[in-house]
Amino acid sequence: MKKGIKTRKLGRTTNERKQLFRNLTRSLVMQGFIVTTLAKARAIKPLVEKLVTRAKNNKLSNLRELLTETGDLKIVQGLFEVGKVMIKRPGGYTRLLRLAPQIGNNAPTARLEWVEKIVTAEVVTKPEVTMTKTVEKKELAVQKATSPKKRTVSSKPKV
User: Fold this and answer.
1) Staple 97 to which of 93, 111, 151, 155, CB 3.0 to 4.6 Å?
2) Distance between CA 83 and CA 54 in Å, rounded?
3) Domain spans in the chain, listed from the N-terminal domain onward
4) Under a CB-based contact definition with an 8 Å cutoff, are residues 55 and 66 in contact?
């Protein structure tokens, strides 16, 4: 009898499965949704929910554990942003929507997304001021006009 089996293997080795879950988590945090097979979405959902629950409490120990789980600081920062939005929600941070089957292998697909809209403010930087070609041409013309002219002596006699 199979008792106490909590993970879905998805036909992969342990390292492949961990990397798959890490990549799916990264895509969900960065894009806000993922479209994948139903089995992968069901496998990743409880893991993402646990990560968001941990990210709701902004402590150094939680940051370190999320960093070991995800492996990327940008993803951890994104999880903390999601945690700030979901602070009043006791659980159920994601929603699973079934989609049409895949063309080719007829595998059922699903869309995994956040329940609440995550809005992140992007940092807007000023564009660097660069000289245009016309300004450069004018500066070259000024330099030529102010520099002394050199006389060149031609070796050929005038005819």
Assistant:
1) 111
2) 8
3) 14-114
4) yes
Check if CATH label 3.40.50.1370 holds for domain 14-114: no
In DSSP notation, 1-66 reads ---S-----TT--HHHHHHHHHHHHHHHHHHSEEEEEHHHHHHHHHHHHHHHHHHTS--HHHHHHH
Instruction: Tell me the C-alpha distance between 83 and 57, whole Å.
Output: 8
Cross-strand bridge partners of residue 36? 110
Nearest partner of 46 among 2, 8, 78, 4, judged by Cα: 8
Q: What is the pLDDT of residues 1-18, one digit of tens each?
A: 878 887 889 999 999 999
pTM equals 0.71
Rounded (10°) angle between helices 14-31 and 60-70: 120
Render pLDDT for 50-84 as a digit per residue (tens, 0 to 9).
999 999 998 999 999 999 999 999 999 999 999 99
Structure tokens at 97: 């929507």
**What pLDDT is attached to residue 5?**
80
